[in-house]
């Protein structure tokens, strides 16, 4: 299948069957529309990698049919891949003012601002992209200007929620009211494509105003310095912390480039107007310990973020016994070990640690079950298609929607090509999906040869063997052996001696004649056998033949 015909198709290239890396495609009358283009953060299974991108080769093979990219909001798992992919896609990117500001800064950093058309969409603006009619529907979230996308086609209307929650008293821009969402439902919504992250949560997510009370209580009781870590993009939480600083008589200090960027873009687009003056790090360190409130990035255990460096003692901001770190965020699955490492280092320093398990210091930006049920009542879709979740989230969301009276539900995963209409929704094919790793300045397959080699080296270690050969094929001098990550420790020298002997015997017993590839393989296997006898492991062995 090369293009959609007289039908409405849906394909997730990321974000369905996983949390993060959201990329969604809608196909209609020969054209494709992309909603969001995000990243996910790498786990220890990707050594040396911080960011993973979606493999979007499916749509790259159909660029003539792609009409545009519409962005729901400014979180990294929805916009983070744009600096790497948008220029090659070659279509306009549509976003609300605050989100567009974040994207523009990313484009500036990558030097692609002039290569990508970035179109700013006002809140009440509707527009057409090929066969798709597009309108933004404001919803509350943990970042300014969260939006659902109302997509109108001749085969029915789709409400693609993006990330959302219900907050009766949001700090930034009022979300659509119950009456406004009911009016959207009155238009007739065929499919609700909906956030599934918190489907197992039996309670509503809660309001940002409630978090202020919890933070006030915790920080007012603190005797020393207080550092609060939260998502940099959570401008609502940053505004809350500004108020908490005033409430508790502390001055506000920010630590982290991404916090500076969010603050700059937020103020430029009309947010964070009441944020108190921010002091620099040196001033913060000179103040009495009970007069400073530091907000820092790194609550998910990111190794180069401010909090990790503070916990290692390598940041200008210093904490000591009796100080406090408040984790005003929820652990993203997969980050538990990295977060635990930071918390252990802080505990060893005598720092008090407060998380959402000890106090009411965080509310989620995603809907719990009561909020999902309420959205179904407002929108009254013919079917729900869960996205933004692992498979267990998607399956439970579909079950819950049916239980709440939604007539139908479709469970899909990354790569499934779903024909939504006409007729009964069904899977009709599969698209190529996967992950790409951002490795320095290079993008490479996350499970390609480079990453597989790196994993093997990390797991088994590496041995280099250099052998000099004379013109007759005999040894010139003693082979040289170097080790990396081989578990021999104090037995290193006798191990190297035996590895050298094995390499010499392989050359002396060479039956391959002038076939250097066979000789190289014989040396490799001989040295690896020595390593296996000594360690039980099979390291990577590289052999260099030097001929006179």
Fraction in helix: 25-40%
**Average residue-wise pLDDT:** 93
Strand order of the largest sheet: 9-8-7-4-3-1-24-25
Structural class determined from secondary elements: alpha/beta
Strand content: 25-35%
Question: In angstroms, what is the radius of gyration?
Answer: 28 Å
- Give the strand tally: 30
* Shape by Cα distribution: globular
First and last CA, distance? 58 Å
Number of helices: 16
Which blocks of ≥5 consecutive residues have pLDDT under 50?
Answer: none
What are the key terms here?
548 residues, alpha/beta, 8-stranded mixed β-sheet, 7-stranded mixed β-sheet, globular
Could you describe the 3D structure shown?
This protein is α/β, with parallel strands linked by helices and 548 residues long. It is built from 16 helices and 30 strands. Helix 5 (178-186) crosses helix 12 (369-379) and helix 10 runs parallel beside helix 11 (336-348). The longest helix has 20 residues, at 516-535. It is globular. The termini are far apart. 46% of the residues are buried. The model has no long low-confidence stretch (mean pLDDT 93).
């Amino acid at each position: 299948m090369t293009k959609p015909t007289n039908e409405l198709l849906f394909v997730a290239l990321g974000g369905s069957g996983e949390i993060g890396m959201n990329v969604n495609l809608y196909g209609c009358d020969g054209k494709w529309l992309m909603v969001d283009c995000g990243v996910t953060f790498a786990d220890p299974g990707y050594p040396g990698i911080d960011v993973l991108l979606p493999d979007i080769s499916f749509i790259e093979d159909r660029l003539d049919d792609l009409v545009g990219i519409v962005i729901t909001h400014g979180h990294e798992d929805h916009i983070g891949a744009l600096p790497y992919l948008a220029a090659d896609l070659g279509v306009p990117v549509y976003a609300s003012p605050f989100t567009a500001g974040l994207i523009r800064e990313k484009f500036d950093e990558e030097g692609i601002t002039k290569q990508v058309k970035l179109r700013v969409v006002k809140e009440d603006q509707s527009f057409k992209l090929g066969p798709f009619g597009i309108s933004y529907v404001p919803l509350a979230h943990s970042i300014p200007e969260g939006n659902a996308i109302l997509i109108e086609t001749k085969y029915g209307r789709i409400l693609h929620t993006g990330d959302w929650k219900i907050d009766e008293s949001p700090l930034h821009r009022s979300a659509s009211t119950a009456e406004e969402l009911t009016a959207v439902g009155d238009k007739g919504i065929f499919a609700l494509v909906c956030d599934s992250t918190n489907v197992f949560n039996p309670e509503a997510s809660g309001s940002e105003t409630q978090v202020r009370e919890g933070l006030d209580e915790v920080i007012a009781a603190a005797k020393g310095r207080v550092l609060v870590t939260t998502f940099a993009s959570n401008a609502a939480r940053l505004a809350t912390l500004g108020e908490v600083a005033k409430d508790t008589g502390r001055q506000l200090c920010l630590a982290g480039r991404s916090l500076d960027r969010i603050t700059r873009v937020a103020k430029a687009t009309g947010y964070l107007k009441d944020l108190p003056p921010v002091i620099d790090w040196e001033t913060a360190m000179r103040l009495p310990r009970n007069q400073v409130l530091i907000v820092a990035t790194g609550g998910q255990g990111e190794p180069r973020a401010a909090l990790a460096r503070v916990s290692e003692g390598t940041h200008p901001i210093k904490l000591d016994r009796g100080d406090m770190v408040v984790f005003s965020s929820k652990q993203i699955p997969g980050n538990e070990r990295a977060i635990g490492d930071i918390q252990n280092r802080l505990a060893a320093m005598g720092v008090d640690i407060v998380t959402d398990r000890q106090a009411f210091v965080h509310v989620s930006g995603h809907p719990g079950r009561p909020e999902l049920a309420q959205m179904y009542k407002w929108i009254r879709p013919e079917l729900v298609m869960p996205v933004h979740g692992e498979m267990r989230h998607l399956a439970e969301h579909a079950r819950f929607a049916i239980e709440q009276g939604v007539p139908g539900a479709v469970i899909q995963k990354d790569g499934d090509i779903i024909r939504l209409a006409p007729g009964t929704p069904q899977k009709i094919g599969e698209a190529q999906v996967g992950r790409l790793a951002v490795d320095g300045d290079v993008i490479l397959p996350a499970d390609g040869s480079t990453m597989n080699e790196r994993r093997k080296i990390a797991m088994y270690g590496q041995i280099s063997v250099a052998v000099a050969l004379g013109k007759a094929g005999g040894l010139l001098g003693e082979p040289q052996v170097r080790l990396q990550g081989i578990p021999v420790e104090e037995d290193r020298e006798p191990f190297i001696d035996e590895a050298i002997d094995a390499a010499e015997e392989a050359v002396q017993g060479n039956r391959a004649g002038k076939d250097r590839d066979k000789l190289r393989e014989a040396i490799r296997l001989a040295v690896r056998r020595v390593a296996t006898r000594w360690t039980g492991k099979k390291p990577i062995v590289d052999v260099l033949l030097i001929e006179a």
